[in-house]
Every structure is written in structure tokens, then in C-alpha cells.
Amino acid sequence: MVSLRQGFSTSPTPASSFYENFEPPGPTVKTEIPGPRSRRLIKDLDKVFDTRSLSILTDYQKSTGNYIADADGNMLLDVYAQIASIPLGYNNPVLRQAAKSEAMIDGIINRPALGTFPPHDWAEVLRSGLLKVAPKGLNQVFTAMAGSDANETAYKAAFMWRRQQERGGPDVDFTDEEAASAMDNQSPGAPQLSILSFKTAFHGRLFGTLSTTRSKPIHKLDIPAFDWPQATFPQLRYPLKEHAAANAAAEKASLDEVEHLLTTYRVPPCAVVVEPIQAEGGDNHASPAFFRGLRDVTRKHGVLLIVDEVQTGVGATGRFWAHEHWNLATPPDMVTFSKKAQAAGFYYGDPALRPNKPYRQFNTWMGDPVRALLFRAIADEMKRLDLVRHTARVGEYLYAGLEDLDRRYPGEFANLRGKGMGTFIAFDNPRRDDFLARVKKQGVNIGGSGESAP
């Protein structure tokens, strides 16, 4: 950590000036982690709640900024950030103020069923928040509950869109045969259609999303799955300049495989879903040219492109949306979001992606106005402090520091990647789990992804 701090510019930025008194000067580790009090509390919690995935028993009142406090008084620099879902740190003063608003209080105690009883100002809340930062070309939003839910409902939109196209448009009603067969889970009412995803992808844990998740067997074991296709995500070699030809060949092979599956797979795909960076699957990157090629292939074959920005969205890559790095000629058909947005759902632009009848894309809550209000405050604060550009600058600094450490300790680093992608930086470590444990003892809370990436 000392090496990465050396040489950092101390020139003030709006972000650093505002938050300079918001955080402690550094981590404080007083006990082992978990400490004695945490162990007692975890034992008690385990009587009523499964604690096997628990990392830190957190004291949220004492957590502040980028530092997370545990029940034993340890204060850790938190670069894990609640599985990449906290955009402005703990107990952010601006967000705490927003939480005291009358609109927020109303949303908490009078939670509406948004599909049937939305607040009278719901359009203004959406336009001033979620839609204010919508991806270019996408001017409508479906609000959902979580990342898995966002992707699941995007898949449903894709299926209904495809059948609506095949049927002849939104004004053509369902046949009696379709209605009857749907109740028996049979075609044509329950059509044989699929979503194409990539190997090592992660899109969620619901039934549809789990069929497109390919990162770890433990997520999928014992759960029935759909017969849906998977293509190989390009496995790039690093440094990029030294392997340019091989990487270009890998990306072409992946695109060729996608095109082959789109035209030959036994259950026809109506959409391709892709992460800009395969985060949970190991922080796997691909070039902008690859994603432009993917967009071309989907348009050529009349299938939708769903970009899963649940992990990458809201500024972490130095752009508000990671797919902005690709410079697409035409936007994705849908962009899903959650995590750092503190809200969830998907953006779209084509009115045909709305089902032809009400209640087809529906649930009781359909999101949460409280989360939409919180996201509005987050987006406003990010703009006020120019945090997306600040993230890009910090990413450049971090990457340069890691390059230096890579040269000095080659046995600890492999495949350093993420240059120019803000703080979405990764490397592989042959002793990853030991590395994570040692770093936590030094006061840094960090998670792993894939088989070997910290």
C-alpha cells in the first residue's frame, strides 16, 4: 500500500476537497478478523440465519467513506464495497440528507405497487434520476428489484418482442391454441426460444438468468436449467501489445461462434446477453472492436443485444456506462443495471419492447421509489463532484502503480488488465486466497473473482 501511495498528486479535486474529513487517515486493525466479539455474534446469528458466506459482521454506524468497521472496532479500507454496490461510500452526508426528505419518508412508509398505484410525480422522479443518465438512445426504463430481476425481465421482454414480431405486430391477438398450450407449458404458447450468453458469464441466480450464468458450478447445481447456448468469451493474453495478433484471432473466433450458434442452435436465440467485463467470472476483458462486432452480428441476424451493466455501470470504468467505451454505431437494445445504482431495471428505446398487453411484464412492487430517489441523489452528487472523470484519473494512477509492482514482484502478478477502464483493474495471483487473507490482516477488505483474480 505504501508503494501505491508514493507519488500520488496531492492537487485538490472537488471530490478530495469535499471528502477530506469524511474518512480516517488509514486502516486500523486491533484484533484478528473476525475478532472475539464478532465470533460470538456470528455464532448467535447462525442460529437463525445461514452465516457460511459471511465476511465481516459490520458496524454500519461507525463505517464511513471507503472504510468499513466491524463489531470488534477494526476499520478496514473497503475496496470490495458490498460486492461492488456502494458508489459513494458509507454514511455519505449528502445521501443521509436525501434520506431525510419527505419524499423518501413517504416512499418508506407508503410503499407503492408501482404498476398500479405509482406516486403522482413518478414520471418526474424517473426523468430527473434514472433517465437523466440513461444510455444514449435509450429513453425508457423498466424498474425492477435487483440485478437478477433486471436481467430476467429483460429476457422476458426479448421473448415477447420476438413472438410479437413473428405474430405480425402488437395488434395481432393470441390464438386460442397459444393460450391453451401456454397453460400446459407447451409450444406454441410457451415457445422454444433461448438467450445466448458466454462461458464464464454471470447474469444472476433466477431461473432464466441462471441458465445464462456460466461462472461457477456451485451457482447452478441441483437447479433445472433451460437448453440455451453459450459461446466462448475471448480469453485475451497479456500484455496486450505483445499478443495483438493472437487476441484478434481469439475475438474473431468468438464472433464466428456466436454467429454459428445464432443460425444453427436447436433452440433459436432471440437475444445475446453480454457483460462489458466479466466481473464475477474472473474480470475478463475484451476489446471495443469485439463488442462492435457483436453488435453487428446481432443486427445482421435480427436478434437483440442486451448489455448487462449490473456490475460495470455507474462510473466504475471511467465512463458512466462501460459500453460507452465501445463507440457503437447503434446502441444496445437493452441495458440492465443494479448494484451501484442502488436501484435496478433495464433501459430500452424501441417501443416494441413493451408487451402488447398490460400485466405481461409485471409484479407487485416493480421496483422501489425509495431506491429511485436514492439513485437521483447519487447521480447528482457524482455530477457535482465530477466523480466519473475522477475515477478515470484514479484508475490511471492505480494501474501505473500496479505495473510498477508487477515489475518488482513478477511472481505475485500475472495478466494485469484494465488499462483505461477506470478502477475496473484486475490481475491474477497464483496464491489468490492466501493473498486476500494477508491483505485483510493489513486492513484492506477485498474480494476475489474467478479462479485466481483478487
What can you tell me about this protein's structure?
It comes from Phyllachora maydis. This is 4-aminobutyrate aminotransferase. Keywords: Aminotransferase, Pyridoxal phosphate, Transferase. It contains 16 helices and twelve strands. Strand 8 and strand 9 form a beta hairpin. Helix content is 37%, strand content 11%. With 454 residues, it is of the alpha/beta class. The chain folds into two domains: 2-78 and 386-445, Aspartate Aminotransferase, domain 1, CATH 3.90.1150.10; 104-383, Aspartate Aminotransferase, domain 2, CATH 3.40.640. The strands form three sheets. Strands 3-9-8-7-6-4-5 form a seven-stranded mixed sheet, sandwiched between helices. It has a three-stranded mixed sheet with strand order 1-2-12. The protein has a two-stranded antiparallel sheet with strand order 10-11. Mean pLDDT is 94; it is low at 1-8.
